[in-house]
Amino acid sequence: MEITQVKGIIFDLKKYAVHDGPGIRTTVFLKGCPLDCWWCHNPESRERHPQTVRRPVLQDANGRSFQEGEETIGWEVTVAEVLREIEKDVIFYDRSGGGVTFSGGEPLLQIDFLEALLQECKTRDLHTTVDTTGYASWETLERIVPLTDLFLYDLKLLDGKLHRKYTGVSNRLILQNLEKLVQAGAKIIVRVALIPGFTDSPENLLQIARYLKKFPAIRRIDLLPYNPIGEAKYPKFGMELRAGKHKMQSEEQLEALRQLVEQEGFAVRIGG
Ligand code: SF4
User: Fold this and answer.
1) Are residues 118 and 128 in contact, defined by beta-carbon separation less than 8 angstroms?
2) d(Cα 145, Cα 141) in Å, to the nearest integer?
3) CATH of the domain at 162
4) Which domain holds residue 241?
């Protein structure tokens, strides 16, 4: 099969993204995730295959119902179809130092599709970023190292027990893969999504920063403020909001967390 005919499942394709790597980018969201985070902000990413969900019934100010019915989340595409969208915005990538980001879910779950996409991007001299949980076999991750200009590597909790409890998986493989990526010479920015009461404690951020100190190649940590927008999506997927409802951290809280991590010797960006 021709590489451009390799198929995969995506659930979104976002243009003019400015928080998923350098410059202006197109971000392609691949469907499926092996983690089960209590706070998942992307419930539509979780299932590996397209899924049909019932829209919640909403009411307008006059009590009239609207937005009933079903919608399908996720669709199958070929590499060629994704590239066609990506190539429409090359002028923006060139002018801004941007490129293409593959995110999820966990894009490594569709490794053949991801690898083919990255190969075709490299053929076109496009900057490539992969946003990953790092939860995959090293043999899988290794395949995309030469094709990926930048990894956005998401860490959640350094405490192993808490990580297992709140994400459903151990963080051992994630940390082992991070070490191997560093050894392989990959360019990496670590990202921590700040989930109130779960990942945004000073203890957790200090543990992460102190762990990362041993890697001279990792000098930047991005802290992603909590975005409650994901909470509204839960009823549609029949999922329980196990982490509860929260507000975004205040400016003061974010500044305090920034300073904490900066004091450990990292450049910190709030929001990526
Ligand atoms: S890793 Fe991301 S997509 Fe997967 S369950 Fe956690 S928050 Fe959701």
Assistant:
1) yes
2) 7
3) 3.20.20.70
4) 3-270
Cis peptide before 185 (omega within 30 of 0): no
- Nearest atom within ligand 1 for CA of residue 105: 3
Q: Which residues pair with 10 in a beta bridge?
A: 30, 75
The per-residue pLDDT for range 205-228, each reduced to its tens digit, is 999 999 999 999 999 999 999 999
- pLDDT tens digits, residue range 73-106? 999 999 999 999 999 999 999 999 999 999 999 9
Tokens of 140: 């899988």
Q: Check if 155 has its Cβ closer than 6 Å to any atom of ligand 1.
A: no
Q: How many domains does the chain have?
A: 1
pTM, to two decimals: 0.95
Atom of ligand 1 at shortest distance to CA of 33? 4
Cα 265 to middle of ligand 1, angstroms: 28
Spacing, Cα 119 to ligand 1 middle (Å): 25
